[in-house]
Fold each of these.
Amino acid sequence: MTDWITTPIDARILRGALEVERTARGVLPHRLPAWARKQFPDEFLARVEAQPSGVRLAFRTRATAIELDVLPTKSAYRGAPPHPDGVYDLVIDGRLTSRASAPGGNLTIIDMADQSSTTWPGRPGTVGFADLPAEVKDVEIWLPQTEITELIGLRTDAPVQAMPDRGRRVWLHHGSSISHGSTAAGPTETWPALAATRGGVELINLGFSGNALLDPFTARAIRDTPADLISLKIGINLTNTDLMRSRGFTSAVHGFLDTIRDGHPSTPLLIISPILCPIQEDTPGPLAPDPNSPELRFRALGDPSDVSSGRLTLNVIRGELARITVQRAIEDPNLHYLDGRSLYGEADFTELPLPDQVHPAPAGHRRIGERFAELIFDDGGLWSQ
């Protein structure tokens, strides 16, 4: 019989979350702070910011067995089957060692038309990892990137210590569902996680599915979060929601950058434009599911001729982001621009198409993560050491 040791779950052993909320059962990691959550315009953002993309437990231990009690909130679109259970990735000394899922949990049914939802309560479950090496090791348990995960209890068969500071730079990244990892195979296989591992940096992932919308509270959260490197992937959600016109977009980008610079006046800051997405390169949004497709595929509903009146496309956004960066970089030499098509472009679309016309498949995430690391973190890259 295992002699279990219970360790409190708190900020000491949690990484990648901006705030940890105490609940009746345990703790709930958040990727935006409470003051920002009071300003959310809808439940869609409330749902995705609580999905712990990039959040992981991190500790040092000799334990050969680990159990984590959780209450996940799983999701499904109305009229469609539930998504596969999210996975918990066990990383030992920097290497993905094992993967598991939690049974049970709440179920949220989402109406794709307006993103409203209904949640049916469920029971907590346990994620277990056994037969681990008995020597001292650095352990990370990466939480499912698309399941809200309430953490109830951590048990091990040996004491746990907080992982010491490894002297790594902290990289804070903000983006859309592609950065969130909504179609990645697991939490360590989102493209930011893959790039962070290769670059040897500590990741804070503020990728919010459908919600990279230049919200002021997101800029203020970035402003207030310690980071050594910051990147912003801007554009796709602004086109596929048809939220802004060119006049508002330019002003909003400047305001977003101004707010971040209030807290990070000289931190290296990279603006990344959208990866290739053929259905929106020159056609405005909004996007909607294609009723003629038996599988989920999106189509753009806008009229390309409306670009002259200020509606946004990906090519319009890329041109404006490049212009804004050049203009501001005269007085801000630590501001840089990266065309997203250098991460995933026409040749990549031919080889690794977007299954739903918007989101990359797992192989696409790997391609984007490898390209980003090569351009940014590898020797000779923008942020190489």
Note: The two ends are 48 Å apart (CA to CA).
Amino acid sequence: MTYQYHDESIVKALPEHTVFVFGSNMAGQHAGGAAKTAYEHFGAMMGVGRGWSGQSYAIPTMNEHLQQMPLSQIQHYIDDFKIYTKNHPKNKYFVTSVGCGIAGYKVEEIAPMFKGISRNVILPQSFRPFVEKPLPKLNEKFLKTIFRDSIVFTDTTDELIDVLALTDSEKSLAKILLNTQMYPTDSNGRDRVFEIQDILYHLDGKLFEFQSNSEGSLVFGGVILALLELYNMNEQDFSDVWHGKREITPPKPANKARK
């Protein structure tokens, strides 16, 4: 199945027939994150925590007490959304990283729930490895290919990645990494500079010498941060893979019935 993706830039306007889809709470208190954007720019209504309003659609990820919902309940509301998109095929749906901000879930927990959704839905780029091809094992060869200066520190195109000696799943991962907004803020608007500087501090001398506050090193560190989050690993794990001591298997999606 073919899916559409967006680069997770923060948007404040969309074409007339494109609906902004965000994670909400059942109380309809749209005070932060994508919910605040939906309220301020896409017609979401206070007190409406589920379904369509204005140019927006709310998928509950927190209850009326602003507590995290179990994944099984979120799956129910995402299934309702899937039905809605099929019944309203003339619209497009711009889905934010539902449940992965204030609600506190990880992308690998939420993204698989969107598998099989209608083609008129545009998903976050970070969802891609969990709705399409599985992530590959992370190994030394991949890291030393993708972190070449010509790849990380320039405007990378799909054509450039396609000439690299990578498997299809590795090419998919490379495109995800290089298109994921991480520095200086991520796709949820969170400032990640201090986290990146901490990563570079821990890896300094273990890979090669970093100029920790240079623009190039911070971009490099942003890509490493994206990998750490995708694979649920730490700096020592990354260093071990870089030096060929081990490979890292991608995490499996969490059980949907987790409480």
Note: The chain has eleven helices and six strands.
